[in-house]
Amino acid sequence: MSQKVFGLFLVLIAAANALKVPVTIYYESLCPDSAKFITEQIFPTVKGELRDYIDITWVPFGKSSFTTQGADVIFNCHHGPNECYGNKVHACAIEHIQANSYQIQNTRESLTLDFINCMMKAGKNFDDNVYPGARCARESQVSGWENIQQCANSTEGSHLLKKHGETTNQFQNPLTSVPTIVFKQQYDVKENDRAMSNFLSIACKYIPQPQPKVCAALNSAVATAVTPILAILAYLLVRFF
């Protein structure tokens, strides 16, 4: 590849990334509300219509806390010790998942989304009481589960989770609700609450033109619903004022 072609390639990548809406998700590995939001809102929307428009930053910590004892980090998690381990697995997966050159249909981001979605679906109900990490890695076409597992069982996992804890505490200490969703680094409690049940409608607000068809259809539906209301208001203003 010539230097000029490579430069054009980088420009195209930068342009594509500029269209993506940054979304930060603060969540917990065993939180039922986090599982519901990720599996019912984030996964189908980002995996489908908005695949090329959303850039997710995952922060698996939630309402946990930590203390340091020398080189060790001790965690106290909202849903108990199993969640602490789950949070470490998520932190390690976010750090270590990589796309393979022969899987051109998968990106690092899409593999991470698939893996996290599988893990959140499993929740506390592990088949045969076996932790679902290996199964989710296999089903999500994520290679290197052994590296993720080794990370979660070592000081690396603790240090990665501690970083997510510091990120969470810098944002909000303590975190008031789990999950918490932040668009473009600006937290809006109303948007957070609405995104919990209709992530697509909030995400479409931030996607620049030209928007994907699903956003255009959503905007059209809203306009159609609003027009009769405006007509009624106009009539009332003329009639009574």
TrEMBL record:
<protein>
    <submittedName>
        <fullName>(Mediterranean fruit fly) hypothetical protein</fullName>
    </submittedName>
</protein>
<keyword id="KW-1133">Transmembrane helix</keyword>
<keyword id="KW-0812">Transmembrane</keyword>
<feature type="transmembrane region" description="Helical">
    <location>
        <begin position="216"/>
        <end position="238"/>
    </location>
</feature>
<keyword id="KW-0732">Signal</keyword>
<feature type="signal peptide">
    <location>
        <begin position="1"/>
        <end position="18"/>
    </location>
</feature>
<comment type="similarity">
    <text>Belongs to the GILT family.</text>
</comment>
<dbReference type="Pfam" id="PF03227">
    <property type="entry name" value="GILT"/>
</dbReference>
<keyword id="KW-0325">Glycoprotein</keyword>
<dbReference type="InterPro" id="IPR004911">
    <property type="entry name" value="Interferon-induced_GILT"/>
</dbReference>
<dbReference type="GO" id="GO:0016671">
    <property type="term" value="F:oxidoreductase activity, acting on a sulfur group of donors, disulfide as acceptor"/>
</dbReference>
<keyword id="KW-0472">Membrane</keyword>
